[in-house]
C-alpha cells in the first residue's frame, strides 16, 4: 500500500516534490497537480500562495508552472526523507539554505539550476517565465527515497463522525480564498482558487492545517518579507472527507517525523484512500464549512 495515498500497489519509484506557482496569472497554465499524492498550499509574499506537490509515483506527464523554493519548504519536506525537490529560481539566501540541507544529506537538488535539461520553457507571461518538468524525469536524474510513512492514516470513517460538510472555505489572505466542494458521484472534492475551478484536481481528502506564520530572514525580488510557515509543533486541524468535516488536531514534534492528524480524543483520523490536499492555513484565518 502507498503510505501517501492508501492505495495499492505500493509504488516502487522515488518520491518527487515540485514547487508550483499559484499566482493568478499562472492558474490557466496549471498542469499535473491532479496526479500528485499530496499537495501542500502555503502562504508566500503579498498574501499569495504556492504549492508543493508530492508525487509518490514517477508520473511521465508535465507539471508546472515551476517556481521557486521557500525557506520553510526545507522544514516541511524533511518528513519525506531524502527526496528530490524541483524548483526554479529563488532568493540567493534561500537557495544557500537549501544547498546546506542537500550537503547534509537531507534533500536532493532537482532544481532548474542543477538539472536544466529536465525543464522545458513554456508560454511567456507578463510577470514570469513558465517552466515545466515531469516527476519521472527528475526521479531519473536525482533518484531519492521511495514513499514512507509521513503520519497519514487511511481507513473507513465511523458513521456519524464529524458534521455534514459539502462545502469548505479557507481564506489565506484578502487575495486568496480556497473553496472545496464535495462531489458525491466521485466521492472526491473539487477545488477552486478565488472561484476559479482547478481542472483535473479531485482530492479524496482536504485537510485544513492551521499553522503559525513567522517572518523569514529573506525577501522576494520586490523586497517583500517572506512568510515562514511553521510545520512542526501542534495545532488545530479539520479533515474533510466523504462530505463531512472532522475537527481535530495536528502534531509533528520534530522535522524528521511525519504529521499526525488526530481527533479531539487523540485518535488518528482515517483518511479516504486517494490524494490529499493540505491547506497550511495561517493561524487565525477563517475556515468555514457547511
Structure overview:
The chain is mainly β and 290 residues long. It has two domains: 16-141, YerB-like fold (3-Layer(bba) Sandwich); 163-289, YerB-like (YerB-like fold), CATH 3.50.90. It contains three helices and 20 strands. Strands 1, 2, 3, 4, 5, 8, 13, 16, 17, 18 and 19 form an eleven-stranded mixed sheet that branches. Strands 12-11-10-9-20 form a five-stranded antiparallel sheet, with no helix packed on it. The two termini are 33 Å apart. The model has no long low-confidence stretch (mean pLDDT 94).
Provide a quick synopsis of the model:
It contains three helices and 20 strands. The protein is globular and about 50 Å long.
Question: Which short descriptors sum up this protein?
Answer:
YerB-like fold; globular; eleven-stranded mixed sheet; mainly beta; 37% strand; 3 helices; 20 strands; 2 domains; five-stranded antiparallel sheet; 290 residues; 9% helix
Q: How much helical structure, as a percent, in the residues?
A: under 10%
Amino-to-carboxy terminus distance: 33 Å
CATH architecture of the largest domain: 3-Layer(bba) Sandwich
Q: Report Rg.
A: 18 Å
H/E element order: EEEHEHEEEHEEEEEEEEEEEEE
Judged by helices, strands and strand pairing, the structural class is mainly beta
